[in-house]
Write a structure and sequence with these properties.
Number of helices of chain B: 1
Strand content of chain A: 35-45%
Number of strands of chain B: 14
Number of strands of chain A: 54
Largest sheet of chain A: 6 strands, antiparallel
Strand order of the largest sheet of chain B: 9-8-11-12
Oligomer: heterodimer
Distance between the termini of chain B: 30 Å
Helix content of chain A: under 10%
Radius of gyration of chain B: 21 Å
Largest interface: A-B, 67 and 57 residues
Shape of chain A: flat
Distance between the termini of chain A: 46 Å
Shape of chain B: globular
Chain lengths: 743, 178
């Protein structure tokens, strides 16, 4: 089906309008008239890694959203892979020609492309594979426009006319059109709607779980006849709630249901077909809210029960297709509301499927506001309903004074817009109230990140951080309150004062900024099963000021085994706890002798060689700017998430040609180095990632879900990872990856 | 989205997030774009002059091991413009209609790669934003512009708030920060 406008590409959906119409979509577009040349996009491609000569004309809706690929299989041929599909046959595309590229699994999944440029397709590197990120179009001829809050409140009916055009030289037969469903149909066995007004529809089992949270429901009789279209505003797994305003929609009348009715979660649309007159036009409506006259609306939900069937559409002929979208007053506001149409037809004995989708948004200004989340002596629970919703600020929140001590109110305002979208902020601000109802201002900032870690022998490590820069006159100690079985209370229980540790005198806890003070203190040992509660405060000894936080952290002692020996025990004179001088290393680790493929590991450097040529060189310096994975410029990095197949071992060499080196993860080849054609392929490349810290001295370390590539770091005096390949095929480097001549 | 245990200011424009451990690893998103990938730790510090000193940026951390999706990627706050290249020009100028006039926002060189994409900075939710792409040749002559109009809907980006307390009423008043 390489020729355009044949097979699945034979039926084209275009806009309608007047002869002088601009073809650009707008409120006055597609109100009937003649068939315009402008096609309606089924899916919009976002192109990356383009083949410069390839222009994408149309992407079939049957592809579905996701990432599809066009690959140059030679200098003149292209092949297409639909999202989640398999590569189709290669098609020769001459300069200036238009062709259809189909997926290997379905002839209805295709893209129509035009070649614009005589230069041969570059089959290597990124240039060999063009990525199309297919997305559903938002607003437009089929999706129509967004709905304002006022329109929603009043209810809105919009109409559009599109043209179904047989662009092929063959007759299309048995053309069927229907409105799609979001999930499988159910039977209203448990309860049904009354003859009018609000009600609920219920089923036996919880299959509504797959339905949208709100939306249209078409109720059909058990024989398939459309009884009514309703809109449900909420649902459980077994029932739909339909308000009175959600009855009798899309041209239907309210009617009592029966226990054998079929329920479909349909797209909120209906369609009708109009045959052009002898002047080649269909009727023109006055505006987008005026219904066309003299057409028969259909309410079918599948190919076996379509909105309508057109027996035959001659080559070059077209039909007007009217769409009606209704927004009832009870419509639940939202973004990316989806609707569309599905089609099926036969041509030259083959059945093809097509679909168009569009997204629009519906506003409800009553949703605009401020969600107030409150936590008492704890963070707010953002998964629960907010404590209050205010339309405007300022607003107030009522507090209750504690019986004793100090109570902390942590408050976060989350904004909500007219579409129900919430802001992502989670930062809280606090107020402290004492038992008299007076506000308490903390004299020193409270400790952060208080954690308990239970160790062998029943010991418990307490860790916390204090940012001294937050206080004009900082604290100088931590106070640790520990109690078994109940929370410790300041003023009642006796604390232990612990001096600060700062970055200068404490090794092994990573980078610590200036004015940052750490607590590392060990409690215990405790018996197995002990319920330990710990409160940590900061304390300024000069004026006995203490932070006012009162929340304790808890740990249950659940470890067995003896208490470890003290780690700072002297073993050999004064040499204890001294780092050994860094040894000079120069190791060559053979991967495959036959191809002379090996690692060479030096202090701060790991090289990969094959056949006397350098593949890459990882270097690590004293800081991040001098650390990188250096890959010779002749290599292309290719993002390729196709499978490289099963592999053996961690690093695998195929002598070839082409000479291939694989990095395997869990028995699967995840990274491919083609040393002959000079490519490095993986599903994804990432730089500056945080890698698993592993001290193993092998150049490649196999872990359950990743393979680490190691380097000897002379700064820390041990081996660590400079890159990793994980089980998803992500090749990640800890620093930058740089290509330069000679590596 | 993970559950944060603390969000703290650790410098003039530095903020630190810590969260409850889940399956992991974690990906971090800011304004719809992934800024960290595969974090194995349960904390992250960001420091940039772009960040407010009073309100942390709306960081979104998702647990990739639990197959979570960042909501900011579903409703990204930036616009994506895509156009087909014209090898006869030298570069493309991206203008944005601001305060009644077209203002140059970016310039993209024509490099013969066929398709071109421009991602804007974060845009204000609920407003219509207009952009245009103007092709220019090596002498600076302009082609007719191609305009894009975007009714932008995304997650709101809140400003800082103030809290005040009245002992007489026991009420905390929440107001927009000045």
């Amino acid at each position: 089906v390489a020729s355009p406008y044949t097979g699945a590409d034979a039926l084209v959906l275009t806009m309608t309008g007047s002869e002088s119409a601009s073809g650009l979509y707008g409120a006055a577009s597609c109100l009937g008239g003649v068939k315009l040349a402008e096609e309606v996009a089924a899916l919009t491609p976002r192109v990356s890694l383009a083949l410069p000569q390839v222009i994408v004309q149309q992407c079939a809706g049957y592809n579905g959203p996701g990432a599809g690929y066009i690959r140059a299989t030679s200098g003149t041929q292209l092949a297409y892979t639909a999202p989640g599909g398999t590569e189709g046959p290669a098609v020769t595309v001459a300069d200036g020609a238009t062709a259809v590229l189909v997926d290997g699994g379905s002839a209805s999944k295709y893209v129509r492309v035009t070649r614009n440029g005589a230069a041969a397709f570059d089959g290597r590197g990124y240039g060999g594979r063009m990525t199309l990120d297919l997305v559903k179009p938002a607003t437009g001829a089929l999706a129509m426009r967004n709905v304002t809050s006022a329109e929603r409140a009043a209810g809105l009916n919009l109409y559009r006319a599109l043209a179904l055009w047989n662009a092929s030289d063959s007759t299309i037969t048995n053309l069927k059109v229907w409105r799609p469903s979001f999930a499988n149909e159910q039977i209203s066995y448990e309860s049904q709607l009354p003859a009018s007004g609000a009600g609920t529809i219920a089923i036996i089992y919880g299959y509504f779980v797959t339905w949208p949270a709100s939306g249209f429901c078409a109720i059909h009789t058990s024989l398939g006849a459309l009884r009514e279209v309703v809109y449900y505003t909420s649902r459980t797994d077994t029932s739909l709630t339909v308000p009175a305003a959600g009855r009798a929609l899309l041209g239907t009348s309210a009617a009592a249901g029966t226990s054998t009715d079929l329920l479909y979660p349909i797209h909120g649309i209906r369609c009708a077909v109009e045959t052009p007159g002898s002047d080649g036009t269909i009727q023109v409506i006055a505006n987008e809210t005026t219904a066309p006259t003299g057409v028969t609306w259909g309410g079918g939900v599948s190919a076996s029960n379509p909105c309508g069937t057109i027996a035959s559409l001659a080559p070059g002929a077209w039909l007007g297709m009217w769409l009606h979208r209704q927004t009832p007053t009870c419509f639940v506001a939202g973004i990316n509301v989806e609707h569309g149409i599905d089609l099926q037809y036969e041509i030259d004995g083959t059945t093809y499927y097509k679909s168009w989708r569009g997204l629009y948004s519906v506003a409800d200004s009553s949703l605009i506001g401020h969600c107030i989340y409150v936590g008492v002596d704890a963070n707010p629970n953002f998964a629960a309903a907010p404590a209050a919703i205010a339309a405007t600020l300022p607003t107030t929140y009522a507090t209750t004074a504690p019986g004793s001590g100090v109570r902390e109110y942590r408050i976060c305002r989350v904004k909500r817009n007219a579409y129900g979208l919430l802001s992502n902020n989670r930062y809280t601000r606090s107020k402290f109230i004492n038992s008299s109802g007076a506000e308490v201002v903390s004299p020193v900032d409270a400790p952060q990140d208080v954690t308990l870690t239970v160790r062998a022998g029943g010991e418990v490590d307490v860790a916390a951080t204090y940012y001294a820069s937050r206080d004009a006159t900082p604290a100088d100690n931590f106070r640790v309150y520990a109690k078994l079985g109940s929370n410790p209370v300041k003023g009642v229980d006796t604390p232990t004062e612990v001096s600060f540790l700062s970055s200068g005198d404490f090794q092994g806890y990573g980078s610590v900024g200036a004015n940052t003070n750490l607590l590392r203190y060990t409690l215990g040992p405790y018996d197995w099963g002990a319920d330990l509660r710990v409160l940590v405060t900061t304390y300024r000894s000069a004026d006995s000021a203490e932070s006012i936080n009162t929340a304790a952290v808890q740990a249950t002692v659940n470890t067995v085994g003896p208490v470890p020996v003290p780690w700072r025990t002297s073993l050999i004179g004064s040499a204890y706890d001294k780092r050994q001088p860094n040894a000079y290393i120069d190791r060559t680790i053979t991967i495959d002798a036959g191809t002379t493929t090996y690692w060479r590991m030096l202090p701060g450097e790991t090289q990969l060689w094959t056949g006397g040529a350098l593949v890459w060189r990882a270097v690590i310096g004293g800081d991040a700017d001098r650390s990188a994975l250096l890959i010779p410029s002749v290599y292309d990095l290719i993002e390729d998430d196709t499978s490289f197949g099963a592999g053996t071992g961690t690093i695998e060499v195929v002598a070839g040609p082409p000479r291939l080196i694989y990095v395997n993860v869990g028995g699967t080849r995840r990274l491919k180095i083609d040393a002959t054609n000079k490519t490095v392929s993986a599903a994804e490349f990432n730089m500056w990632d945080t890698l698993t810290d592993c001290p193993v001295d092998d150049p490649a370390v196999a872990r359950p879900t990743e393979t680490l590539l190691q380097i000897y770091d002379p700064i820390i005096g041990r081996y660590r990872a400079y890159a990793s390949v994980n089980s998803s095929g992500v090749f990640a480097t800890g620093y930058s990856a740089i290509q330069r001549k000679g590596g | 989205m993970v559950v944060y245990t603390t969000i703290e200011k650790t410098g003039d424009t530095a903020w630190r997030w810590t969260w409850t451990a889940g399956t992991g690893p974690y990906d971090a998103y800011l304004y719809g774009r992934r800024i960290r990938f595969g974090l194995t730790e349960t904390n992250l510090t960001l420091d940039s002059d772009d960040y407010s000193s009073t309100e942390p940026p709306p960081l979104e951390v998702v647990d990739r091991g639990a197959s979570e999706t960042a909501t900011s990627t579903l409703y990204p706050p930036y616009a994506v413009l895509q156009w087909r290249g014209n090898t006869g020009c030298e570069r493309y100028r991206i203008d944005r209609y601001t305060a009644g006039a077209w203002v140059e926002e970016a310039s993209v060189a024509e490099t013969g790669r066929g398709y071109y994409v421009y991602e804007s900075a974060a845009l204000t939710d609920g407003e219509t934003h207009q952009f245009r792409v103007v092709a220019l040749d090596d002498r600076g002559y302009e082609a007719d512009p191609v305009a894009f109009s975007i009714d932008h809907i995304c997650q709101p980006d809140p400003s800082a708030i103030n809290l005040s307390y009245s002992q007489g009423t026991g009420l905390i008043t929440i107001s927009e920060a000045a």
